[in-house]
Write a structure and sequence with these properties.
Blueprint (H helix, E strand, L loop, with lengths): L8 H4 L5 E4 L5 E2 L6 E8 L5 H14 L5 H4 L1 E4 L2 E7 L3 H50 L4
Antiparallel strand pairs: 1-3, 2-3, 3-5, 4-5
């Protein structure tokens, strides 16, 4: 198989997208008059590594913002934002930007992990080849 025929790790990863606001799950936080848990559906449930990267990206994009606006997390196939309902439209572009940035960073992570795995496999193959060569050079009665 030629190098051009091989699928690159980053090519097989689908990008996560925000697809809609889930009105059934969105509800006011208990004990608050204004803050809501706003549930945005994602195109798929992202892997744990993607979720970790998202939280880092989100925090870096909201440095200095009030704590109530910094609270966003991923729960299964949902992105959950805590904010007043009248701020959802203003926060959505920032959420979308965080998701795009997360996809880019996660793709780099996937590529780096694949390269590390290839290096480990090559090391193992070289070691096995060396052992095999030694075994072949031995003569037993």
């Amino acid at each position: 198989m030629s190098e051009n025929d091989q699928t690159k790790p980053e090519d097989s990863m689908r990008e996560i997208r925000i697809v809609r606001l889930n009105t059934d799950k969105t509800q006011r936080l208990i004990g608050s008059e204004t803050l809501y848990q706003v549930y945005f559906e994602l195109s798929e449930s992202p892997p744990i590594e993607w979720r970790i990267v998202f939280e880092q990206e989100w925090k870096s994009m909201n440095v200095g913002a009030p704590l109530s606006l910094q609270d966003a997390s991923v729960s299964r196939a949902f992105l959950v934002l805590h904010c007043p309902l009248n701020e959802v439209a203003a926060r959505l572009p920032v959420l979308k930007k965080a998701v795009v940035s997360t996809n880019i960073s996660y793709k780099k992570y996937v590529v780096a992990r694949a390269a590390e795995e290839t290096t480990r496999e090559n090391f193992w193959k070289d070691e096995r080849r060396t052992v095999d060569d030694v075994a072949k050079s031995l003569h037993f009665d």
